[in-house]
Design brief:
Blueprint (H helix, E strand, L loop, with lengths): L1 H24 L1 H23 L5 H19 L3 H22 L4 H20 L3 H28 L3 E3 L3 E5 H22 L4 H29 L14 H26 L6 H5 L3
Antiparallel strand pairs: 1-2
Helix pairs in contact: 1-2, 2-3, 2-5, 3-4, 3-5, 4-5, 5-6, 5-9, 6-7, 6-8, 6-9, 7-8, 8-9
Length: 276
């Protein structure tokens, strides 16, 4: 048990350093990280759901994810979004024409959108750095405080058939502290954006907890404990970023919506997330 705990701590620290350094530098460094996360998620998804056993679906899936990853890597986010839609549509077509598992298009979107959302939010400017740190702070505050508040207050279960350990008290507590963390960070990094930050933080916190439940549902449905053993002491990539994925989806959609309203396209989603 001691060895397992040490392994968990060491690998956790190494991952944290890699993520924070890449976040700080942004640009190609962070896009590479985002692409690697997306591809590893698809690898785990294909193994869990059995898509990897269908060679047609497996080949099409990996070609599609590689195409999305390439466009994200070169920073062409608008084309990557179009490719994501096209690849997902191909996955749906394979269900009809080939009898492929319905989990193929879900996995294609889930993994491809993860890499795209992460990279697009961070971008290569200072607001993108602030936005990514904001998302991390909200997700981490949600995860940590939901756990401690839930253990302290207990009460009714949030979704007993999916994740028996989660409670409504933990969910509400996590959301409250996530909003507090988001507002505090915005106060120091983007003074004047605190009100918008509070609303965004609440949405991201709810989505983060939904992402956690979604992955729990998938693992329970397919009878697996961990998404993989890629991370020593931690399980798989999906196990570590389940809440972050849904939070990034929400942040991406909010930023794109705000940006389109202003007619700015996808030039600086980090700034758009805070209404700047």
């Amino acid at each position: 048990m001691q060895r397992e705990l040490k392994l968990r701590i060491v690998s956790g620290l190494i991952l944290a350093v890699i993520v924070l350094v890449a976040t700080w530098y942004g640009g190609l460094a962070f896009r590479t990280l985002a692409v690697v996360i997306g591809l590893l998620i698809y690898y785990e998804w294909s193994k869990i759901t059995g898509i990897a056993r269908d060679w047609v679906a497996n080949v099409v899936g990996w070609i599609g994810e590689a195409a999305i990853a390439f466009l994200v890597l070169v920073g062409n986010f608008e084309f990557a979004a179009g490719m994501l839609a096209g690849v997902t549509a191909v996955g749906i077509a394979l269900i009809i024409l080939h009898g492929t598992s319905r989990w193929l298009p879900v996995g294609l979107f889930y993994a491809g959108a993860t890499g795209l959302a992460l990279a697009a939010i961070r971008g290569n400017d200072q607001p993108g750095l602030y936005a990514m740190l904001f998302v991390f702070a909200v997700v981490w505050a949600t995860d940590i405080l939901a756990y401690f508040v839930g253990r302290a207050l207990r009460g009714p279960k949030l979704a007993p058939s999916i994740s028996p350990g989660k409670t409504w008290s933990g969910a509400i507590g996590g959301a409250v502290f996530a909003v507090a963390a988001g507002v505090l960070l915005a106060h120091f990094l983007l003074p004047g954006a605190e009100v918008v930050a509070a609303g965004v933080a609440l949405i991201l916190s709810v989505c983060s907890q939904s992402g956690d439940l979604f992955e729990s549902f998938i693992k329970r449905k397919f009878g697996v404990k961990d998404s993989s053993r890629l991370i020593p002491g931690h399980g798989g990539v999906m196990d570590r970023v389940d809440g972050l994925i849904f939070a990034c989806f929400a942040a991406f959609l909010l930023a794109v919506s705000f940006s389109l309203i202003k007619g700015a396209g996808m030039t600086s989603l980090g700034a758009a997330l805070f209404g700047l």
